[in-house]
């Protein structure tokens, strides 16, 4: 086990009053230029470049995520935000220190969960000064809209980055949250959290295996070099989890807002993004914390569009239809490629023969690496009448070390200091959960015409 903590590493720009608050220190400014905001009622949506660039608006003709429940295991979600109201069901708290419905922001970055949820299922809000073109898109014309605007968000709150008054360790919060999400009917689980270590506590095996047995799709962020993470860490390294890397506006792997490793499955936008903040505001941010919910939202669209598909078949569709980038085939930078929402929904993919998750299985991995079940080699050794020199009778066979993600091909400088790193004395390593995440608390955009 390695000392460290599961964290959300986030750079913030907050109002002066908040900066002066006792016990809270201002964080470093983002190193990527902030997008200039438009002073119009739909200025927020105008900045959601991925809606058109990636074909989400086109995808809405087939699916909007209706009837699909996405669990957001994060720092809590503000269910009262005007762009989320009605799309966030009562969830739960895994920390022991938050509200029982998961609607309270917790820890060092209480806004993080609301940002994540809005990328998935924000529906906008009404504004008498803003009208949308007839039939242009679902939801309401002003404010933020997520990629699956009719999906449900199930918030399960964690306490990360500061001392948890509830007393539950991060190591225990995560598996509890995963199990609760499954038992609460989640079809998709989003984990915009992670660590700098490829390994995870053995106590997590059963929870992730439980989710896979119950046909739930798991999505996690890969981490960010700008927060000091050069290779993918857990839970993105857990077999069967869709690990999401990040790309810039040109669909090139982001040098700052992504990591790399053999577990990456697909890549999605991770730079110059906007999301809803608690209250009625918005924030500009970057990082795979934001990339993961874009993929979770796409999976929600797929689960509505292909209701008879198993989780394994949905994963097969996602990776098969991804647009290959970098080295041919799967690679440590882009995985199988950059997401293609329209193809993921409509392309003819043979999934009839798919019976197992193409990204692996926690159960099978654990049977080898945790020694929970004797390996075939061990069984044969026990059945051999005369023990071989290598394996004397009663002698255990050394467990195989977990696979390590490929090391970076080049050494990249740390571009942004880690912000708000917690110290929980647990093994989980330090991470960049999504973000280089550059968040600016933006006051709600004025809807007055200039």
Summary tags:
disordered N terminus; transmembrane helix; hydrolase; Peptidase_S8_Ser-AS; Rossmann fold; 13% strand; signal; 450 residues; Peptidase_S8/S53_dom; alpha/beta; seven-stranded parallel beta sheet; 12 helices
Could you please describe the fold and organization of this structure?
This protein is an alpha/beta fold and 450 residues long. It has one domain: Rossmann fold, CATH 3.40.50. Helix content is 23%, strand content 13%. The chain contains 12 helices and 13 strands. It has helices at 16-19, 43-46, 50-53, 56-59, 112-121, 170-183, 203-213, 288-305, 311-321, 341-346, 362-369, 376-383, and strands at residues 11-13, 69-74, 92-93, 123-125, 142-145, 152-157, 188-191, 217-221, 242-247, 264-269, 273-277, 281-285, 438-442. Helix 5 (112-121) packs parallel to helix 8 (288-305). The protein is globular, with a radius of gyration of 22 Å. The relative contact order is 0.20. InterPro entries: Peptidase_S8/S53_dom, Peptidase_S8/S53_dom_sf, Peptidase_S8_Asp-AS, Peptidase_S8_His-AS, Peptidase_S8_Ser-AS, Peptidase_S8_subtilisin-like, Peptidase_S8_subtilisin-rel.
Blueprint (SSEs and pairs):
Blueprint: E1 11-13, H1 16-19, H2 43-46, H3 50-53, H4 56-59, E2 69-74, E3 92-93, H5 112-121, E4 123-125, E5 142-145, E6 152-157, H6 170-183, E7 188-191, H7 203-213, E8 217-221, E9 242-247, E10 264-269, E11 273-277, E12 281-285, H8 288-305, H9 311-321, H10 341-346, H11 362-369, H12 376-383, E13 438-442
Helix pairs in contact: 5-8, 6-7
């Amino acid at each position: 086990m390695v000392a460290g903590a599961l964290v959300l590493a986030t750079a913030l720009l907050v109002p002066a009053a908040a900066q002066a608050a006792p016990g809270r220190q201002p964080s470093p400014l983002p190193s990527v230029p902030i997008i200039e905001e438009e002073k119009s009622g739909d200025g927020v949506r105008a900045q959601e470049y991925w809606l058109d660039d990636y074909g989400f608006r086109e995808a809405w003709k087939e699916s909007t995520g209706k009837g699909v429940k996405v669990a957001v295991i994060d720092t809590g979600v503000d269910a009262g935000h005007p762009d989320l109201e009605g799309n966030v069901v009562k969830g739960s708290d895994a920390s022991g220190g938050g509200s029982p419905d998961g609607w309270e922001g917790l820890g060092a970055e209480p806004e993080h969960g609301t940002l994540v949820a809005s990328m998935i299922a924000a529906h906008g809000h009404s504004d008498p000064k803003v009208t949308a073109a007839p039939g242009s898109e679902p939801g309401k014309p002003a404010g933020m809209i997520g990629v699956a605007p009719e999906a449900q968000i199930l918030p399960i709150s964690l306490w990360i980055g500061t001392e948890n008054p509830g007393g539950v360790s991060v190591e225990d919060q995560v598996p509890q949250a995963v199990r609760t999400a499954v038992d609460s009917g989640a079809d998709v689980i989003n984990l915009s959290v992670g660590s700098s270590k490829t390994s995870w506590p053995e106590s997590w095996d059963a929870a992730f295996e439980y989710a896979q047995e119950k046909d739930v799709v798991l999505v996690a962020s890969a981490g960010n070099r700008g927060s000091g993470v050069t290779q993918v860490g857990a839970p993105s390294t857990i077999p069967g989890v869709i690990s999401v890397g990040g790309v810039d506006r040109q669909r090139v792997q982001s040098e700052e807002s992504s990591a790399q490793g053999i577990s990456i499955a697909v890549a999605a936008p991770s730079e110059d993004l906007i999301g809803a903040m608690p209250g009625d505001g918005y924030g500009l941010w970057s990082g795979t914390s934001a990339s993961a919910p874009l993929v979770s939202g796409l999976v929600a669209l797929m689960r509505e569009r292909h209701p008879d598909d198993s989780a394994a078949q949905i994963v097969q569709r996602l990776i098969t239809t991804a647009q290959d980038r970098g080295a041919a085939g799967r690679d440590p930078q882009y995985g199988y490629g950059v997401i293609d929402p329209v193809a993921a929904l409509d392309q003819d993919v043979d999934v009839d023969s798919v019976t197992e998750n193409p990204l692996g299985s926690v159960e099978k991995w654990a049977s080898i690496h945790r020694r929970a079940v004797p390996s075939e080699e061990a069984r044969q050794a026990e059945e051999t009448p005369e023990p071989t020199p290598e394996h004397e009778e009663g002698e255990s066979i050394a467990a195989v070390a977990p696979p390590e993600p490929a090391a970076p091909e080049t050494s990249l400088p740390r571009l942004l200091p880690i912000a708000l790193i917690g110290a929980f004395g647990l093994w989980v390593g330090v991470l960049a959960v999504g973000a280089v995440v550059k968040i600016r608390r933006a006051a709600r955009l004025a809807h007055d015409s200039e």
